[in-house]
Amino acid sequence: MEPQHPHAGDPVFDLHVGGKMETVSTVALTGREELSLAYTPGVARVCEAIAADPSMTQHYTWVPNVVAIVTDGTAVLGLGDIGPSAAMPVMEGKAVLFKQFGGVDAVPICLDTTDVEEIIETVARLAPSFGGINLEDISAPRCFEIEDRLKAMLDIPVFHDDQHGTAVVALAALKNALRLTGRTAEGTRVVISGAGAAGVAVARILLEAGVEDLAVIDRQGVLNSRRSDLTPVKAALARDTADKFGRSGSLADAMAGADVYIGVSGGSVPEEIVASMAPDAIIFGLANPTPEVHPDLAHKYARVVATGRSDYPNQINNVLAFPGIFRGAFDVHATAITEGMKLAAAHALADLVGDDLSEELVIPSPFDPRVPGAVREAVATAARRDGVARR
Hints:
With about 400 residues, the chain is an alpha/beta fold.
């Protein structure tokens, strides 16, 4: 009789017994003939063909359809630096989502190092086994360098989901919220609270989408070039955001009269600061499990409210983006995921809402069956347009 696990009876732990995934063979092995085809001696012919022409990997292995989900466990969910072993349940979950929502196979890889050089070298050495790399839960600012250098080194998609998945879905929701409130991207004042991985990526994609008046805030206030404490990533962002409109000061200074608040930082925004926003405000409090502005408070002052939670309307959930983005990239054997592909994914998500647009529906549900296909097609088309498709 199998012994009971320590948390038996708890439905969360019961679901996780033995992990959440397994590998399944796609071929039958019922006799000697099938075994000889799938393994020796037949497999040798396939190996020799790939040795003669490495591109044959794309046809005769699972490589082009599999993602490595790589983490060092330093920024897991809202739990922080919990290490690689404790990160594994999240990485398994991510793999299950890839398969369920994108038809993409994924392998969780939790690395026992936080050294930037060691992470880059390890991923680069593993890369021949995978069609793409999904970086996950790696803390800022290290995540920026790791992603940028791997993108330069590898000819397969490299995508840090904490940055770009969040950014894609946030842009999709914001596009519809602006439409609902009669605003344009160019005429909207946006405040982003948080200058980590998600905050930087959300800011960058909003700039690409036409937002001009944008202030990004960290613990010391608005990022601007008069500050001497900025990292290179924050300094570059300051030049492209608050500097243009002379924004400076605290969260309270930036929020007064702002049209949009996007929280990716945690913490709590006092009610008097929320109340200072413009009429018909838009508030996305994306910290989990506790949004920066609780929805009950946000609804007192805002017309559109979104969170990262599944128990309120308008959930900004990365699962809307990353499975379809990788599926679309894989379909055309893309060498990278470009800014154009991310924007295409965001616009495809926003367009699915269509005439159903309302304060309670600015982003589709993760269970909307149209989502993966719409994102997939938009990303594949954008990859061809951007010149990174190999077929």
